[in-house]
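Subject: Interface between my chains keeps coming out wrong

I've been trying for a while to get a sensible model of this assembly. When I model each chain on its own everything looks fine, but I need the whole thing in one frame so I can look at the contacts. Pasting all components below, labels as-is. Any help appreciated, I'm running out of ideas.
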Amino acid sequence: MIIISRKSQGIAAERELLHKFWNTGKFIAMRAPGSGAIKYPVPDLLVGNHLRRFAIECKTTKSQRQYLRSEQINDLKTFSDTFGAEPWVAVRFPDKNWYFLSLEDLDKTAGNNFVISLESAKRKGLFFEEIINSDPLSSS
Amino acid sequence: MIIISRKSQGIAAERELLHKFWNTGKFIAMRAPGSGAIKYPVPDLLVGNHLRRFAIECKTTKSQRQYLRSEQINDLKTFSDTFGAEPWVAVRFPDKNWYFLSLEDLDKTAGNNFVISLESAKRKGLFFEEIINSDPLSSS
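Reply #2:
Try treating it as a single job with all components included. I did that and got this:
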């Protein structure tokens, strides 16, 4: 039996998305280094070209809902505002699809954190193919 | 005796520069992860705000000249063109200063690689304080 930690799963998911963006041939993508250094509020992935830039927090879950701490979302916002990027949350649910959610698509929890359900992701999220082809002017 | 590998020295230098940019409060900075993943042509550091973005190759040397392979420079160019960033080479010489060189400031070697001497860096390079305050419109 191979035990794969949640952290490794997260890194594997980030890398999967990194490869997908590079494979389009239209975007560069950069992962933030994991542990070791002093932590700065950087997103899991920074993706972009000279037209658009995405700061992406990546999550993968085996359940029907993905929670996000409010600090993570605040950091993502601050980074995106400073750098000039669009903040996105990418979640891979058990259906194996990646859903791209804008921050307004997330629901607040009672404890002021955030949550996105698979059902809600299906309704509001963009697929990978949609985000790489979407029009920057109509995206917000 | 502590042996510090050239690789660790390189990472320490990248981190030093990373901290310097964050400490300005005006830029975000992101290091590319070291080993482990498939290698994509990403710079050592990506630094920026909504006005300017720098793709930076960092080097530190104990000698009077720093060599750079042509592939490194080509990768830096390709990344910068695709992402929309200014390509820079940052070298820390034994005088401990960081010099920021644009690609035109590098000299070609006989083998079609690149080199920058301390003397030439002093003449052509920008100091850290200059690069963070320089005007994007007059920088090229």
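Reply #3:
Confirming on my end. Residues 61-133 of chain B form a domain with the Trna Endonuclease; Chain: A, domain 1 fold (CATH 3.40.1350.10).
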